[in-house]
Structure formats: structure tokens, C-alpha cells
Amino acid sequence: MHCKTKLFSVQIPELAKCSVLMRERSRVEETIYAMQRAGAGSLQVISDFDMTLTRFAHNGKRVPTTHNILDNQLLIDEDCTKKMRELLNTYYPIEIDASRTAEEKLPLMVEWWTKVHELLIQQRIRKDMLAQAVRESSAMLRDGYKVFFDRLTEQQVPLLIFSAGVGDVLEEVIRQNHVFLPNVHIISNYMDFDQTGVLRAFKGQLIHTFNKREGALSHAAGLRALQGRPNVLLLGDSLGDLTMADGVSEHQNILTIGFLNDQVEERKESYINSFDIVLVKDETMDVPNAILRYITSSRDRK
Ligand code: C5P
Ligand code: MG
């Protein structure tokens, strides 16, 4: 064990950064070893999108979520912008409030998403304007995203992006960053357009931050590409993201990584108690990339 630990710190030095917190380092090590022994063929990655694959902030300014990318005059009028911002100012603090439970937040999140989706539908958003809105936005994936997507593709590891954001916008963000690759699968809130390309509804069951478990059981469990891959690397920025792997039957090893972007001191303890690895104010993919590099390397496999 001692020897392994030494090996570990040499092979994944990124885990020694002071922004990396772990409740139980030995469990993390054992899980990573087990995943490395099983190899890339046994692995799947499940990741949240907003504030997990995308940055939280850049040059001191918040990076927009997929919903916020729609806040563009190409798509919505001033009144709608104002109302959406008011809703964000009301409900986002609730979403990240460390003093409320997920159960307490749940109905309020449904309220937020429902109100915003109704507003968006009233705006008769045009499908053919979405790409331009994404181009004009300051959407930004985390530093190192290219290495992340490329390695998963090279190693034929499926990546499930599981987002409570807007699927059509999410797809456009990854397309414009040239990483909408064949191993990428998406579960999200998709827009339903009428025959003339005007938004008329959102498809399927609403996904918000705290009902990903239901989405996992109804959608992810049926995804063929994920089957027969019992090891899961899960990435998220909300405690609600931890349920994204609930659709994986007969999993063997799960390693969870949580990006702690906001309300750091208030939420640190609960994040450490909930995720295996917590990354504090880290805008990069360096740690997930280092772990993936190790897991998918063939060296020392027994
Ligand atoms: O991809 P992810 O599941 O993280 O997307 C959900 C995020 O989008 C939430 O964390 C929430 O803060 C944000 N959101 C938003 N505007 C809304 C609804 C959700 O920015 N109207
Ligand atoms: Mg998120």
C-alpha cells in the first residue's frame, strides 16, 4: 500500500495540487487502480455540462449556461431578458444554498425551469438562429477540454453528457468547439420546433438539477453504448449530479469528481462528504485528464 501510494503520487501528480480535496484518499487510489486494471474497455464517463464541462468564470465574468446563451436579442425581447434575469436572481441562490436540502429545493427548481421554458416558448425562438446566438455568446469549455474529448474518442470510451440545460444549445456549443464526436451521447432538455422552425414546446420529461436520477433511470439505462461498462467516472458541479450514474446497473467502480465553483466555504464540507474528489475553483480539466490518462494507459495492467 505504501509503495502504491508513492507510485500514485508520481503517476498522477495533479492530485497533489492544493485545490484538490479528498475525504478518503486511499479509496480514490484503490478505485483508480481498479479502473486502470480493467482498462478503457470497461469505462464510461458521465458528465454534467454547465459549469462542469464549461467554465464557471473567465476574466472575472461568469460564463453563460446554455439557458443564459439564449439571452440574446436575436432570440428574445428585452422584457423576456429582464424576466429571465429576475428568475435567475431569485432561484440560483436557492439552487446553491447549503442550508436547504435537495427535497426542499426540488419544487422550486421545477418552478424556475417551468417559468423560463414558458417565457422562451412565448418568444417563438427560431431554430435557425441558435447557432448564431452561440457564436455571439461567451460560452467557453474548460481549459483542457480538447485533450479530454480526444482521449475518450481515441480510447473509444463513451461520454454521456447529462444536462439540465438546453440540449439544442449544448450541441451547438460542442459542435462549434469541434468536439461533437461519435462517442458523445446527450441527455438534456430538447426544444420542440414546429414545421416552420419556431419553438413550440420542450420535449419529454423536464430535467432540472435535482431530478437527474429519474432521467438516469429512464434514459441512460437504455443507452446501448454504455452497456457492459461497469466502471464510471462521474463529473459534476452540483450535489444533484451525483445521481447521474443511478441508471448504471451492476457497476463495479464509480469515481466522482465535483467542481466546487461558487459558495466555496459554505459548501466545502458537503462536497467533500459527497464527491470522492473535490476541485476547488479549478477552471481546468487537468485532474480528470490526468486520471483518464492513467486509467486508459496499459502500463502495469495485471
Ligand atoms: O448542465 P447542467 O445540468 O449543469 O445545467 C443546469 C444549470 O443551468 C443549473 O446549474 C442552473 O444554475 C442553470 N440554469 C440557468 N438558467 C435557468 C435554469 C438553469 O442558468 N433558467
Ligand atoms: Mg452544472
Automatic annotation (TrEMBL):
It is found in: Cytoplasm. It catalyses: CMP + H2O = cytidine + phosphate; a ribonucleoside 5'-phosphate + H2O = a ribonucleoside + phosphate; N(7)-methyl-GMP + H2O = N(7)-methylguanosine + phosphate. Its main location: cytoplasm. GO terms for molecular function: 5'-nucleotidase activity; magnesium ion binding; nucleotide binding. Pfam families: UMPH-1 (PF05822). Keywords: Cytoplasm, Hydrolase, Magnesium, Metal-binding, Nucleotide metabolism, Nucleotide-binding. Its EC number is 3.1.3.5. InterPro entries: HAD-like_sf (IPR036412), HAD_sf (IPR023214), Pyrimidine_nucleotidase_eu (IPR006434). Signal peptide: none annotated. GO terms for biological process: nucleotide metabolic process. One of its GO terms (cellular component) is cytoplasm. Belongs to the pyrimidine 5'-nucleotidase family. Monomer. Specifically hydrolyzes 7-methylguanosine monophosphate (m(7)GMP) to 7-methylguanosine and inorganic phosphate. The specific activity for m(7)GMP may protect cells against undesired salvage of m(7)GMP and its incorporation into nucleic acids. Also has weak activity for CMP. UMP and purine nucleotides are poor substrates. This is 5'-nucleotidase.
